């Protein structure tokens, strides 16, 4: 388990994640930092869900800044895939049995010491809470399907957010689709790593993803730097007043700290 969140139910806990694979194995100008990329791809750790939970894919981005000030940009698509390991499913059910036993013990401990009052207490109020606990906070290996989070990530020298998002979404669809893509998945990964060049300044580049073409544009030397992030999301996340306040702080050259989960 990642962190000290044992008070949470097993499906609400986070677990330690790790990098399963990365390509290419090494780049001279961008050495792969496994710990940093692992933490940035899954900042909250590995998580589990069941068929009753929301499992929509989520995209987020990150920046790695080196000592010399150079930057690389990461774009991550996190999704959930079914757990096929019987051992992991059994372990999850065991965790739930332990968790529910602890919850039951805490309910009993908070009640009166006498058996009569304990029984009446459970009959009246605590039985309801225990029933809710078991109904909404449980995992049954024979009834529920267990899913675990997984991420695919692209690390790029420039923040081509929209192009990376489209490629990752298409790659995810190819992985989860019942119909295989036109070519093996390795072909698309090899193509974007070795055959798609960085567009020259002031030019645009069109390349083919898995299903649809993708276009990315790079500003010229006399243009504003590349900003491929949708401004609408900034307004939705911060709100108009907060955004105006942040912009005011930028103009006044004040130090700004944005804190989030």
TrEMBL record:
The keyword Translocase does not apply. The keyword Lyase does not apply. GO terms for molecular function: guanyl-nucleotide exchange factor activity; small GTPase binding. Residues 1-261 form the UDENN domain. InterPro entries: cDENN_dom, DEN5A/B, DENN_C, Tripartite_DENN, uDENN_dom. Keywords: Guanine-nucleotide releasing factor. SMART domains: DENN, uDENN. This is DEN5B protein. It comes from Zapornia atra (Henderson crake).
